[in-house]
Amino acid sequence: MEATRIIAVRHGETAWNADSRIQGHTDIALNDRGLWQARRVAHALRGTAPSAVYSSDLLRAWATAQQVAAEAGLQVVAEPGLRERRFGAFEGRTFREIEQSLPEAARAWRSRVPHWEPPGGGESLVQLRERIHATVHRLAARHAGGLVVLVAHGGVLDALYRLATGQPIESPRTWELPNAAINRLLWTPEALTLVGWSDTAHLEDDALDETIA
Questions:
Q1: CA distance 199 to 181
Q2: pTM (2 decimals)?
């Protein structure tokens, strides 16, 4: 089977990103800056001619993907498997608020305990990795030999980076996950390979890094 090129994009900024609030599956719209970022990433990808544009069905990713798809003359395809990690009772809170109210849970989260689940129906890092691995394998295999754009979230991009580089789930993150950054990977049935990461030249350094997920 031929390789599939993947362009993975994190959604544009939201008000909760700016406030460092955990979003998870909470459906938050892009703010004005995020809308501008979405237009910029769409312009940067003009001419890449993807076979398809897939997006998390959460509004912040969907609105970003719509800009990209419009430039390519395509319709966005909703893919719930690209949703952000589910954070349960953490959603809507800042890390400081969680530290104050749930200190043990905050320590488990910051320590990246692989099988730990945030209270209130959250998703573990292992569950997230397995979901993203299965979703990307399925979508990339569908377009073997082509190029697909995936628009998703900080936690999803983090999982992709770890899958492509062999970084353990529990290792601290040393790579960036800015809003509307362009990330490039290569998929084959045997492996996912990193080609380029965190390209924000199209944003003129106007990108907010993910610091809480």
A1: 5
A2: 0.94
